[in-house]
Write a structure and sequence with these properties.
Two copies of one chain form a homodimer. Chain A has ten helices and four strands. The first copy, chain A, is mostly helical and about 240 residues long. Chain A has two domains: about 100 residues, Glutaredoxin, CATH 3.40.30.10; about 120 residues, Glutathione S-transferase Yfyf (Class Pi), Chain A, domain 2 (Up-down Bundle). In chain A, α2 runs antiparallel to α8. Chain A is globular and about 45 Å long. The interface between A and B is large, with 49 and 49 residues.
């Protein structure tokens, strides 16, 4: 399957395999979930390729031909071009599928939405990522301490920001890229690192509201076909 | 000074203090340098407020009124609005000062440029940041090992990407936000963490070309007024 995609990507004209965009994803990848929400939000018909992070499929030479950084997610466009980095993918989807905008039109509000998204993507997510924590050759207890400390600092800053700028959603009354990053981040913090969200009422309220929406539920890790049965829980 | 700015920010109409944008910066902040390059590139007349990271000025209550995440950089717009996160600030500058574009017009090339910038901002920079490394309560040797390992993984991925997509600059022949992120990242890797760049010829070549340009030199850490004399070296 990977070879087919690489061939497809190298062709100058779209091949039959590339009539729909293709998302490389894994149920447990926080940043892949951001893009799954965006694809659902825009109502884009897309194909899925599941990369098994548990067996290290993202580290294979075949996958590194697609993404040399060996990370998820990765989008193959309808014309066979590769885009990596979740926020770059979401900006591309916004530019090419303008219905149901993900960014406010005002440059200032757009900057606000992007800033919250980056706050999560640069300051919080990398410090709870398995690839990073696995490089910490320290015992389980210290590793967990580091991870929780970094998460607490990140969540405190984000909570203070949302106290000032949020409404029903992160940026007032409009759903934006900030919300697409918030929900997956909270999932990782709670499910992987047992972070108690009680000290963060704004984050909790916005996350709970968003989780009533079909785009966020359908794209949820537990609703993905590659999520092992023994990992699944009811989505709440 | 911080109080003046907060007052200014809370006013509905621009105050006299806000006739020019104001950048909160520190010579040693990698992400602040990205924004300094963008401001120079656009030829924007701006004011500077130096936040002393060494004395923890970014952690004070006064600064947290401006940026609850207590990080640099932070831009106060001409109308007194606050924007945080370097990439969000640069996108805002692009939207409001369109001369000398920093992003390609094509959505696909724009995604490519943004993806390289995010590759640096999400995957490399956070793992060489003092605020993160300081939370690692492990001896100097282990801390350095972790930092170097994470940097090597990040630089290898970036080098492979640039081998495929770069020209004179990161994205072919046009200077973009990707270049604004590359140069500061290389500075931190070399000067703070003694990373040898020989294994990364594409990164090195592009960085060296960019460092001949006045926008990158003027904004360089060693050319900032808040850089202590004993830290300064000739810019090369």
């Amino acid at each position: 399957m990977l070879e087919q995609i690489i061939n497809c990507q190298n062709k100058r004209t779209p091949s039959p395999q590339c009539q729909r965009p293709i998302l490389y994803t894994n149920y447990a990848s926080e940043s892949s979930w951001r893009v799954r929400i965006a694809l659902e939000w825009k109502g884009i018909d897309y194909e899925t390729r599941y990369i098994n992070l548990a067996t290290g499929e993202h580290l294979t030479e075949a996958y590194s031909e697609i993404n040399p950084c060996r990370q998820l997610p990765c989008l193959i466009t309808k014309t066979g071009k590769i885009i990596t980095q979740s926020i770059a993918i979401i900006e591309y989807l916004e530019a090419t599928y303008p219905e149901r905008p993900i960014f406010p039109k005002s440059p200032l509000l757009k900057a606000e939405a992007l800033s919250v998204a980056l706050n999560i993507a640069c300051d919080i997510q990398p410090l709870q990522a398995e690839r990073v924590l696995n490089c910490l050759e320290i015992g389980g207890e210290l590793r967990q301490q580091f991870c929780r400390r970094m998460l607490e600092i990140g969540l405190q800053g984000l909570e203070s920001r949302l106290e000032k700028i949020s409404g029903t959603y992160c940026i007032g009354e409009h759903i934006t890229i900030a919300d697409f990053c918030l929900v997956p981040m909270v999932f990782t913090a709670r499910k992987k690192h047992n972070i108690d969200l009680k000290p963060y009422p704004y984050i909790t309220k916005i996350r709970n509201t968003l989780m009533t929406l079909p785009e966020f539920r359908k794209s949820h890790p537990f609703n993905q076909p590659d999520c092992p049965q023994d990992k699944k829980e009811p989505v709440s």
